[in-house]
Write a structure and sequence with these properties.
Oligomer: heterodimer
CATH superfamily of the largest domain in chain B: ABC transporter type 1, transmembrane domain
Helix content of chain B: 55-70%
Distance between the termini of chain B: 54 Å
Largest interface: A-B, 195 and 184 residues
Number of strands of chain A: 10
CATH topology of the largest domain in chain A: ABC transporter transmembrane region fold
Low-confidence stretches of chain A: none
Order of helices and strands of chain A: HHHHHHHHHHEEEHEEHEHHHHEHEHEEHH
Distance between the termini of chain A: 46 Å
Strand content of chain B: 5-15%
CATH architecture of the largest domain in chain B: Up-down Bundle
CATH topology of the largest domain in chain B: ABC transporter transmembrane region fold
Number of strands of chain B: 12
Largest sheet of chain A: 6 strands, mixed
CATH architecture of the largest domain in chain A: Up-down Bundle
Strand order of the largest sheet of chain A: 6-7-8-3-9-10
Structural class of chain A: alpha/beta
Mean pLDDT of chain B: 84
Chain lengths: 593, 636
Amino acid sequence: MTALSETSIGEGAVSTLRRGLRLSPEFRAGLAGTLLLALVATAGRVVVPIAVQQTIDRGVTGAHGPDIGFIRTAVLLCAVVVLITAVSAYAMNVRLYRTTETGLAALRVRAFRHVHDLSMLTQSGERRGALVSRVTGDVDQISQFMQWGGLMIIISLGQLVVASVLMAVYSWPLALLVWAAFVPLALALRRFQRLVSGAYTRVRERTGDLLAAVSESVVGASVIRAYGAEERTARKVDETVAATRRAQTRAQGLVAMTFPVSELVAALATAAVVVAGTLLGVGGHLTAGELVAFLFLVTLFVSPMQTATEVLNEAQNAIAGWRRVLGVLDTEPDVADPGERGETLPRGPIEVRFEGVGFAYPGGPPVLHGVDVEIAPRTRIAIVGETGSGKTTFAKLLTRLMDPTTGRVLVDGVPLDRVRFSSLRERIVMVPQDGFLFDASLADNIRYGRQDATDEDLELALTELGLADWLEGLPRGLATPVGQRGESLSAGERQLVALARAYIADPDLLVLDEATSAVDPATEVRLQRALDGVTRGRTAISIAHRMSTAEAADEVIVFDAGRIVQRGPHAALVAEPGVYAGLHESWIAQRTI
Amino acid sequence: MPPGAPRVNPRILREGMAVLWVAIKAEPRVFALSVLASALYALMTVGTAQVLGWATEHVMLPAFRSGRTTAGALAGAAALIIGVAALKALGVAGRRFYAGLMQYRMQAEYRRAVTRQYLRLPLAWHHRHPTGQLLSNANADVEASWAPIAPLPMAVGVVFMLVIAAVSIVLTDVTVAVVGFLVFPAIALLNVVYQRRLAPVATRAQQLRAEVSEVAHESFEGGLVVKTLGREQAETERFEEAADALRDANIQVGRVRGLFDPVLEALPSLGVLAVLLIGSLRLQAGAMSAGDLVNVAYLFTLLAWPIRALGWVLAEVPRSVVGWRRVRGVLDAGGSLPYGAAEPGGDAAASLEVRAVRFGYESAEDEGEDVEPGDVLHEVSFDAGAGRTIAIVGPTGSGKSTLTSLLVRLVDPAEGTVLLDGVDVRDLRAGGVADTAALVPQQTFLFDDTVRGNITLGADLPDERVWEALRLAQADGFVAALADGLDTQVGERGATLSGGQRQRLALARALVRRPRLLVMDDATSAVDPQVEARILAALRAGQSRQVGQDGRSGDRTGATVIVVAYRKATIALADEVVYLEHGRVSDRGTHAELLVRSTGYRNLVNAYERAEAEQEALEPGGTGDIEGGVEDGVLK
């Protein structure tokens, strides 16, 4: 199992940003136009106050007294500039929202898809709530930066360059002084950003924990209620809430510190310019007008520095979210689809071979040892054994939910990991024990097995499975809503739906993992018979919790402590001393009174 | 309708202010500090310009004119500039920090409140609300509610700037002031239009945000099914649909906001220009001096700033109101289980009485439609004397699990009563039922916790007692083999434990509490029959008391057991069988009595034997009539 990738946690912000942008080309769509509009809008925002100032200086307090004509013309011009600025800003905003939201939606979908591409073990190692946060809140964090910050950085840089050049033109010694004052700030900010970045990453992690805890308290509501564990669950949630708040406050504290630092540096630079400029002026190297103009340029230089500080903080937040999304995308699925290069299995009965297959869960002891088994096409196999003997592991390897630690699995002579998923999932279908249903109608849930099935197909399938009576008994028939996780149905009924769902998919190899464990005996017997009929000509493997299944199978494979210890038809196995005879005896014992 | 989905209300601003007032009332100290800091920051920002002006006037220009300067004058100017900046720095840091503190405290407070509510609300409510939506309520909606707190202190902190500037302008020239102040109604109008247009799209966006979360949660939860049926692409398309809808809604929001922000920014500039224009006429008429006009223009540029700060708050208000309504939808949801004050009685096995119970699930989709929610249980009555074992048997979907959830009061019946030791469970104090009874549900749920944590659920129980429960549930063997034993972390979907192992942990969770009433809902399907027999025997004999020598349960005489079962061996251990069919008690009696009396019961529990008999009968013949087989064969 691979846990979700942590590599991106340690990576630098710029690298995350670059990789993130590369992964989402949508963000770059129409960037040139947006930038142009942004430049106009920003230029307008700088020009308007200056223009107003000029109007006052020249028109009202000019050398020859107030000049009404000039004021009117200037006001009109200024108004035009204000309007152009507003219109450009609006156009820029709209473009920006469109491209960024498009990019974010695509990123969400990509991350979502990747979660499904991850192996079952990787998925189950993650908590639901935390996974959800990676495609919701973590992505949301990116949006604000993309809709404002990213552009501001570019614009601020431009403003910095312009201000720098102008400063150097006015007085290069003073310009050097200003830069010298800001160099330590830039260096300090770099260090600071690393701290801020770490702090925001922790915020995102804690938020993931928080959602996982909330999700647990909702999904486990009935157990919590039954055991009066509300207080305990609330305490657990409270801990994650408090941890999130602490992380947020810490990040905010760090961010709050960056602003005073840049304020003070700006003041230092200004003070230095005043002092040095006056001294230069006294020495005759600078006129008063030049110094005043230079001081104005210093404010032009300082304001993008401060914007940049703000944006960089925002960026760290976005990057923290981005990292968590990239953490999903960076995780190589350890059970990978060979895709185009893989093989497609032809339709028809499937033959299965296990060659020296061993399996251990990551960090755990081996649960299967050297399993060698061959299952001929068209046979119906029952797999029995005590709980924990490796039956389900066997089924998961057979359906390639996991890959073996040692040895290999072949279907129709093709190594399983060479088979394309599209072909594999079409031909080999497993019905897991827990029949998870989606919050939709009964029909939609069965149709999950085959999307183009008509209502008639569904009814036919249920009839073939001997479930027509059950369907008739439902108040709304196929339209019956099954509720969240199918909870409006009983566990037994959910298993019936899961079975119908797999059946309608029409696989060549059907693997049932205790798929009828919650169904009543009479229904099970009926299902068993129906399955015997419909699986005729296919290969079927059932992990049986009730020996009646084993009795009806062509062959029985007996697992014990991760090994196959017996194999053969029921009649033969029951006669020989061994694990099977013991299991069978206890089965008989529980039926006889 | 989703929880708290609001009608579009034109008075959003008022509501938004009410939301903010909630936060201010909750955190008055932090709020005051953040406002003070903001005011300091605003004041010092104006101060910076003044100081620079003063330095130019009194230090630099004299120096340039006279050709010399003193170190003292320069140092004074530098110190003044840096001093003002230091105060400004203090202001900005304080504003940021305290605003953040307030925002995060409110978020934490409401996340706690929302989750507490989830834990309190009845399961029927949970059935109606998808988990993903509830996650979104606790996350995105709470965040949206308190988003305006970040810019709020600034807006409040600069209000007095606004007042001072406005008063000065009025005092200077009323006509110019009136023209300039037209900016305010313009802003008010803009804001009304903005709130009205944004509220519906923001509502939609927030709802879609929850739907994205909902689809993701459900899809990840059903990950195994998605995989085994190769439905990754279809699921991705389903998610994409939700994500694209959210994208479109967000773009809609962006369009409205994208217009609001530049217009809000332009208005003060236009105001200044209007002032200049009118001012020039007044100047021409000799009604005001040039100095006055300069002064008024300056004051107006000062006004731009508080207006912008106010704009930041106003911009966040619609989303905040939408989030707040959704959060309130959860917090105000009624229908909790009311509790009485009665203490659960005694240490002995509890007696249970079920009287004429009726129950039906209401599903979310039924709410608006005229579909009668089908009753799952009708007129169910039976009783279990203290220490007795009752088996509940019935076909799939006959209401057995629903009945078990009524027994431990996960839900209340629509009609009828459930009595524990003669007391209506509704009269028992909160936690009273959980102290008395333990349910082992059909579907195992493990918490993201250690093995020990999953069994004790936080109760202070010695390890010996945990091990004893594990032994009884036949789980001691595999737990001992785990790397960290009781301290092994088992994830919420921990794949390394087999279904049977998980079920045994759930069983141990119930047994460790030494319940006076144990309800097992087909909870031993993965446990060997002999083991099950041992567990039941131990419970009946009250052997569990041998385990703990901690006195409390020294005089326990065992438990009353209700067991949903199909196995004949399990049923045989029961003193009485309640046979359910279509939600009604079809028959009651001992196993032997029911075998004789009830055809349905007989067919159900003898299904395997009948099947075998038919199999044998059919063996030579090949095909045959399956349904007709051995009708009502009397097999025992």
